[in-house]
Design a protein that fits this description.
By secondary structure, the chain is α/β, with parallel strands linked by helices. It has helices at about 15-30, 50-65, 115-125, 170-175; strands spanning about 10-15, 40-45, 70, 105-110, 130-140, 150-155, 165-170, 175-180. α3 links the parallel β4 and β5.
């Protein structure tokens, strides 16, 4: 992990740290599920999707088996949709399999209040009844408002309320790193 402090935030996970976290989570998913039979990875838009693909690739590399990967948009399931000034930007939802009876691993970049995960679980149940839903996140920053906890965590990063966690991924942002940022107007 680097100690470099850029002007726009403190880097807490480097590219190598993210790679190691993804590989560790992939191993934990295989161990917990006694293999990958009937396991599907469903990435939440936006950065959960490339993370789910990376997990599937890591599993394929060391297990020699492919895991189906899907994409989930939770825009219309959010509990704050009425208070949003702009309409939610709808993105593609794609289920790679009929999830009835499957063990679904939801994948997201940052777990904060738990509200996005609640919305994702609501969205998933519109596609079927999985045998179980597990949660994998790259960063758990705390401050939960709902009784939701991850099954797999890349890194626990306790944060202050006036901080935000910014995940940058090669697929969406051109580089891999995670930063803690001070929110605008905060000292």
């Amino acid at each position: 992990m680097t100690n470099e402090i850029p002007i726009d935030g403190h880097i807490i996970l480097s590219s190598d740290d993210i790679r190691r976290a993804v590989r560790r989570i992939a191993h934990e998913i295989v161990e917990r599920n006694h293999g990958v039979s009937a396991v599907a990875l469903i990435g939440m838009h936006t950065r959960g999707v490339p993370l789910a693909r990376r997990l599937a690739e890591a599993i394929r590399e060391f297990e020699g088996e492919s895991v189906p990967v899907g994409e989930l948009d939770i825009g219309l399931y959010r509990d704050d949709i009425a208070s949003l000034e702009l309409r939610p930007r709808l993105q593609r939802t794609e289920m790679p399999v009929d999830i009835d009876g499957w063990r679904v691993v939801l994948v997201d970049d940052v777990l904060y209040t738990g509200r996005s995960i609640r919305a994702a679980m609501d969205a998933l149940t519109d596609f079927g009844r999985p045998a179980s839903i597990q949660l994998a996140v790259l960063v758990d920053r705390g401050h939960r408002e709902l009784p939701i906890r991850p099954d797999y965590v890349g890194k626990n990063i306790p944060t202050a309320m006036q901080e935000s966690v910014q995940v940058l991924l090669e697929e969406t942002d051109g580089r891999d790193e995670v930063r803690i940022m001070r929110m605008e107007g905060e000292a």
